[in-house]
Amino acid sequence: MIECREITYRYEAQSADGRPVLDGVSLTIDDGSFVVLAGANGSGKTTLVRHCNGLYTPDAGSVLINGVSVAAAPVAARTAVAMTFQEPRDGFVAATVGADVAFGPENLGLDRATIDQRVEDALAAVGLTGYEGTHIEHLSGGERMRVAIAGALAMQPDHLLLDEPLVGLDAPAEQSVLDRLSALSADGMSIVVVTHELRDLVELADRIVVLADGAIALDGQPAAVCDRLPEYGVSSPC
Questions:
Q1: What is the spatial distance between Cα 232 and Cα 40, in angstroms, rounded to a whole number?
Q2: Domain ranges of the chain
Q3: Phi first, then psi: what are they for 66, rounded to 5°?
Q4: Cβ pair 212, 232 in contact under 8 A
Q5: Residue 230 phi/psi, 5° resolution?
Q6: Is the CB of residue 50 less than 8 Å from the CB of residue 90?
Q7: Angle separating helix axes 141-153 and 97-107, nearest 10 degrees
């Protein structure tokens, strides 16, 4: 479970008396759930999820992962919560697919056989078996996103957070990523997708949370909140 408790956060460029980008946000993500975190640009959604594995530290409030404070155990948080970025290249650390997917498990100090098995399993999960030696620069946008997801899966996390995973993808690549997310969700992984465009995600989601001006504006099942999405700068797919 992911628990955000009264999170308040300001960027350094903001004055102390200015509006924080997150203003007392409390949010719980249950194990095995598929949550879409939506909102207009600047609403605070990316900032919020970056607190969940310790990339950001709140000015006030706390984040707990599986009952343990991120501040007290950041390494455990980053093992339990894997994240992909809107631009997959921002997270790549190696030239080839296999080396990049292996990077996280290597940093856990695992033995070589275990690392190789994790890489094999993660690539199979995203439909990229046999791509270990392929250079990332030769991949399509959809393939790069799937490599990013594989790198996250190789950590064997409890929770997967994806920031705008469908942006810039053509229709076949988008469908491929959606299929993989659907399969992971069916296997019981909790998934949070950050987006401002819900059109192709609403059927997978069991919950939609909308941020506006650094606070939660809507939180409920898709059918219950879809009609109100335009009020907060989010196109309704319903």
A1: 7
A2: 2-88+158-232
A3: 55, 40
A4: yes
A5: -60, -25
A6: no
A7: 20
235: nearest Cα among 210, 204, 213:
210
What secondary structure letter does DSSP report for 44? S
Both structure tokens of 142: 């959809």
Amino acid identity, position 22:
L
Are the CB atoms for 161 and 80 separated by under 8 Å? no
User: Cβ distance 181 to 35 under 8 Å?
Assistant: no
Question: Considering only CA atoms, which of 148, 191, 154, 153 is closest in space to residue 169?
Answer: 148
**pTM of this prediction?**
0.87
Strands (E), 71-214: 81-84, 159-163, 190-195, 207-212
Tens place of pLDDT for every residue, the chain, 238 residues?
999 999 999 987 555 556 799 999 999 999 999 999 999 988 999 999 999 989 999 999 999 999 999 999 998 898 899 999 888 887 899 999 999 999 999 988 999 999 999 999 999 888 899 999 999 999 988 899 889 989 988 998 999 999 988 887 788 878 888 888 898 899 999 999 999 888 889 999 999 999 999 999 999 999 999 999 999 999 888 7
- For residue 7, give the 3-state DSSP assignment: strand
Name the DSSP letter for residue 132.
Answer: T
Which DSSP symbol is given to 229? G
Q: Which CATH architecture has domain 2-88+158-232?
A: 3-Layer(aba) Sandwich (3.40)
